[in-house]
Amino acid sequence: xxxxxxxxxxxxxxxxxxxxxxxxxxxxxxxxxxxxxxxxxxxxxxxxxxxxxxxxxxxxxxxxxxxxxxxxxxxxxxxxxxxxxxxxxxxxxxxxxxxxxxxxxxxxxxxxxxxxxxxxxxxxxxxxxxxxxxxxxxxxxxxxxxxxxxxxxxxxxxxxxxxxxxxxxxxxxxxxxxxxxxxxxxxxxxxxxxxxxxxxxxxxxxxxxxxxxxxxxxxxxxxxxxxxxxxxxxxxxxxxxxxxxxxxxxxxxxxxxxxxxxxxxxxxxxxxxxxxxxxxxxxxxxxxxxxxxxxxxxxxxxxxxxxxxxxxxxxxxxxxxxxxxxxxxxxxxxxxxxxxxxxxxxxxxxxxxxxxxxxxxxxxxxxxxxxxxxxxxxxxxxxxxxxxxxxxxxxxxxxxxxxxxxxxxxxxxxxxxxxxxxxxxxxxxxxxxxxxxxxxxxxxxxxx
Length: 448
Description:
By secondary structure, the protein is of the alpha+beta class. 36% of the residues lie in helices and 21% in strands. α9 (227-233) packs across α16 (415-428), α11 (291-299) packs antiparallel against α14 and α12 (305-313) crosses α14 (351-377). It is globular and about 60 Å long.
């Protein structure tokens, strides 16, 4: 019998779109992935990288239909990756296929940052300066693209708009743009003016937990629409000393805090302050993550990831490492060549030796961020909570534990979908508060 508190979580990943079901009445919280669709940015006629948005929407609807056909559904929620967006016109239609953040049109982003001022940008937004940030993407848009635009919507919000007609901007994803004032959680019109865009393009911020419409007579609730915000809610956090290591195309390392940290030390270390889905701040930093391994795997003819990781775990020699946070790995022409160059490995090196070098480099990058968190916040790291795709790789947890000397708790590979479902559960009254939801997620008393 299907639970009346069964919800559907749409989780848009930059390489995989997933629609999952979560039974909020189950004694053992589980994410049942109903539909998964792999995708990548697609070059347009000019060579620019775009998302196949029509394909993404079609696959999401296919997954939602599967969810409705398999039993009653109490609610739907949508989360996805940050920074990317689409424009809708006065009729509510999509102006064009959204650009992918790895597109080269933002290669000159530093000139915009320098014109506004690096310190000024961080003082206002508290966001890690990266070329992928929405502010730099918007600054690169051409007048002909802007002319028909009535609103700019971040991609998870754009999908909610497609499902329900709602026009808005959920706060946690808004905080990834480099256009939100960190301390008052509203758009920084000063920065919007600085990049020459009309203020009316930007819909007002909205908070997670409210119903924003229906799809096929099923309520659609706003959740933490940034996938990392949802993932933090679905992580096995034990207290303020827990550091979340959220693994996917990017590895994002951070902690939950009550308020933004925009000190000179945080600025020097290039940390981001992003809004939590249910309040508070996620103090974190990005490391280019398993995108590196995925691109190398593609160059090797897509051997099964399980076999590749098993072989990498069996390597019993020291391997060279490299700086996995280097911007050179965001969108290189040839990822394998970049890795070989950075690591010093030869082109004759085995696939599993290169894979081991990549994984160890990601671990070193993550632990460097842990050390920076401790020195910047003054709060000691007590344990590491690993979530996302890397939770399926035992080697990752083992290396983190060995190299850090701290306990490592492995959470759900689908933590974003779980956090998405938790917010829906709060909206539906299944949980009284986040503390209760986390006790359900991890019996034994996971702290809020």
